[in-house]
Amino acid sequence: MSTQAQLKFDDELAKHLSEGVRITFETMFGLSPQARPYSVEGNSRCEGDISGIVSLSQDGIDAVCVITFPSATILYILEKVYKRKFNSHEDSSVIQGVGEIANIINGVVKTKVNERGLRLRMGLPNVVVGKSHIVMTQPHPSMKIPFQMEGLGFTIVLTLTRVESAKAA
Amino acid sequence: MSKDKINVLIVDDFEMVRMMLKNALNGIGIKNITEATNGKQAKDMVLEKLNSGAKFDIIFSDWNMPEMDGLEFLKFCKGHDQIKKTPFVMVTAESESSFIMEAVRAGADDYLVKPFSPMLIDKKLSRFFGNEAKAI
User: Which of B117, B112, B113 is nearest to B87 (CA)?
Assistant: First the structure.
C-alpha cells in the first residue's frame, strides 16, 4: 500500500462539511444555513425525523456521513423547491428529496476532501425515516456540526468507521 | 433563438431534481419544459415529438436512472440522424471525472454538476444558442 493522505477531524474537514452544506443550500434552495461550532465525540448522537446517509470510502478508510432533519426543517426546505405543501416528512417526494440532498452535499464534500490528496468514492444515499429517531455513532469517533437557518435547525455528522494507518510503499 | 422559443427536455427519476432544474430554467425565462422520469420515457417523448414534426432544442439528462439510464439515452440520441445535433447536457451529482469522460466519449455536448445555479445553466445555454439566448 502506498503512503496516503488521511481523513482527520480537524478545522479543514469541518470547513469542507460546512461548505458542502452551504454551497448546496445557497445554490439550490436560496437558503443560507449558519454552521455552529463543531464537536468531535466518541459517542455522538443526533435526533431527527428523517436522515440521509451516504458512505464514503477508499483503501484504508470507511466513513459515513449522516444529515438529520427535524420534520419542520425538511418540509420548509422542500416546499420551496416543489412549490407545494406536504402533510408529512414520510411523503415519498420528501424521502427522495432527502436522499438527493445528502447525495449532493456529499458530492461537494468528496470533491473538496479529495483535493487534499484522498481518493474517496461515494456510495448511493439511503434514507431513514422515523419520528424522533436517533442516529448514534458509538463506538466510532465522529464530527458533528449543527446548522441553523431562519429559526430551524439540522445536523450533519461524519463518522469514521475504519481508518488504517498509512504504510510506506 | 430567444429563450421563450427554446424547448427543453429534462430527464431525471427524482422529482426534486426535475423541479430544481425547472425552477432554474423558469428563473432565466424558459417556460417550454417537458419532463421525463427515465431514459425510456424520454426516448418515447423524443420520437413522439419527431412524429409531430418538431424536436427538443436541448436535453438535460441524469446519469443514474431506472429502465434506461442517461448513458443509454445519450447513445440513442447521438445515434439518431434527426436529433444527433441536439445539445445533450449530462447532469451528475459529483464531479467524478470518469463519469464525465464516459459521457463526453459517448457524445455528450456538456455536463452539469449538482448543485447548479440558474446562472450556470444560463451560461450553458449561451454556449449552444448564442448571446440571443440571453435576451428574455
Answer: B112
